[in-house]
Automatic annotation (TrEMBL):
One of its GO terms (biological process) is sensory perception of chemical stimulus. It is found in: Cell membrane. GO terms for molecular function: G protein-coupled receptor binding; G-protein beta/gamma-subunit complex binding; GTP binding; GTPase activity; metal ion binding. It comes from Cherax quadricarinatus. Its main location: membrane. GO terms for cellular component: cytoplasm; heterotrimeric G-protein complex. GTP binds at residues 40-45, 170-176, 203-207, 272-275, 361. The keyword GTP-binding applies. G proteins are composed of 3 units; alpha, beta and gamma. The alpha chain contains the guanine nucleotide binding site. Guanine nucleotide-binding proteins (G proteins) function as transducers in numerous signaling pathways controlled by G protein-coupled receptors (GPCRs). Keywords: Cell membrane, GTP-binding, Magnesium, Membrane, Metal-binding, Nucleotide-binding, Transducer. This is Guanine nucleotide-binding protein G(s) subunit alpha. InterPro entries: Gprotein_alpha_S (IPR000367), Gprotein_alpha_su (IPR001019), GproteinA_insert (IPR011025), P-loop_NTPase (IPR027417).
């Protein structure tokens, strides 16, 4: 039998194509993504990964800058550890390392040009059992996450012609003090219309003093990527040396999720530093329940189980995830609208869901996979806003 006229399925799909093309034109400008989160949660590391994955990586000039950051990271790491020998009443194992200790404690970081003896003394101290003992008690003071990574490779970094590897750059640390923007293009899967889309990604500083600048970039943000350092459950923030770092992160998330300026933005939480969290939970000296006593009653659901993974680590990461999910659900439904606590009923609040990913921002492969999901999700959010359902 021969059918005449237009196949309704084809007509529908042509209409869908038209809608998508119109939307793509509209968004040719860019999709704006904002990275938020407390200090040291990994925002700038995500920017570096986007440069690796979607732009051409790092220029020789940028590599030179990162090499200097890395030398500063080594200096910060070894001076922090050495200072804490006395604070924690720990003796050096080798008496002859006293000279190295005195040298490191006398460094003026503002006027330091990294002479050869600095590296020699640093390597000596780093291999001393006393300093290693201080390192194992790092939850008691403020140490940068990359300290061990770079102290283990001082002999490489000290070379005058040292050029940092991609891994070195990803581990290097410099506090963000201004708003940065990167632009890149992402291919759109065929099922969402094909072609490519421009993304603008904004990075801000996460420490308390920096957060008043955040509002400058809230306008027109389609998606907030909220970074959480999950491994910091046993640390206090640098700013007041008092507030628990994970609690600070939860508080910031609550205020961003409920911010009226971001009510039309999608939220994706990156539960970051999974590598450090796993190491801490399985081999560390601290336990989450010491800081969050409710952890004792937390049960892992069967949907979150994975026979390949350490059970305690799974429990820890899901416990932390649920702290954020719970906040996103503390929104009451009234007259078909969702209202954040404290808002008036007349405030229009769109229904939103908060999505979570477990991430290790220093792992390019992990970030690549997670971002495939994130990009698709952002495209789908936008399509559903114009009435196209592509599930
Ligand atoms: N091991 C490990 N280190 C990470 C991870 N994510 C970030 N880091 C390291 O943590 C440190 C801080 O990361 P940044 O990206 O600078 O943090 P930030 O959120 O930009 O911090 P501010 O600029 O102060 O707001 C860097 O040394 C990173 O290499 C991770 O998943 N695993
Ligand atoms: Mg930063």
């Amino acid at each position: 039998m021969v059918f005449c006229g237009v196949d309704p399925n084809r007509r529908q799909s042509r209409e869908l194509e038209k809608k998508i093309t119109a939307w793509m034109k509209d968004y040719k400008k860019a999709i704006k993504i904002l990275l938020l989160g407390a200090g040291e949660s990994g925002k700038t590391t995500i920017i570096k990964q986007m440069k690796i994955l979607h732009i051409s990586g790092f220029s020789p000039e940028e590599k030179r800058e990162k090499a200097q950051d890395i030398r500063n990271n080594i200096m910060e790491g070894i001076t922090t550890l050495t200072r804490n020998l006395d604070e924690l009443n720990i003796e050096l194992e080798q008496e002859e390392n006293q000279e190295a200790k005195d040298y490191i404690l006398s460094i003026d970081p503002e006027n330091f040009n990294f002479p050869e003896e600095f590296y020699v003394y640093t390597m000596q101290l780093w291999s001393d059992a006393g300093i290693q003992e201080v390192y194992s008690q790092q939850h008691r003071f403020q140490l940068i996450d990359c300290a061990k990574y770079f102290l283990d490779k001082v002999d490489v970094v000290k070379q005058p012609d040292y050029e940092p590897t991609i891994q070195d750059i990803l581990h290097s640390r410099r506090r963000t003090t201004d708003i940065q923007k990167i632009e890149f293009e992402v291919k759109v899967p065929k099922k969402y219309g094909g072609g490519s889309l421009n993304f603008w990604m904004y990075d801000v500083g996460g420490q308390r003093g920096e957060r008043k600048k955040w509002i400058q970039v809230f306008d027109g943000i389609q998606a907030v990527l909220f970074l959480v350092s999950t491994s910091c459950f046993d640390l206090v923030i640098r700013e007041d040396e008092e507030t628990n770092r994970l609690q600070e992160s939860i508080n910031i998330f609550r205020s961003m999720w409920n911010s009226r300026f971001l009510k039309y933005s999608g939220f994706i939480v990156f539960l970051n530093k999974q590598d450090i969290l796993k190491e801490k939970v399985t081999h560390g000296r601290t336990r989450i329940a010491e800081y969050f006593p409710e952890y004792n009653n937390y049960k892992l659901l069967s949907k979150d189980r994975d026979s390949q993974e350490n059970e305690e680590y799974l429990r820890a990461r899901c416990f932390i995830r649920d702290k954020f999910i719970d906040i996103s659900k503390q929104v009451v439904k009234r007259e078909g609208r969702r209202l954040a606590p404290g808002l008036q009923p007349q405030d229009d609040w769109p229904a939103r869901e908060c999505y979570c990913h477990f991430t290790t921002a220093t792992d390019t492969n992990n970030v690549r996979i997670v971002f495939e999901d994130v990009h698709n999700m952002i495209i789908m959010w936008n399509l559903s806003e114009i009435g196209v359902n592509v599930s």
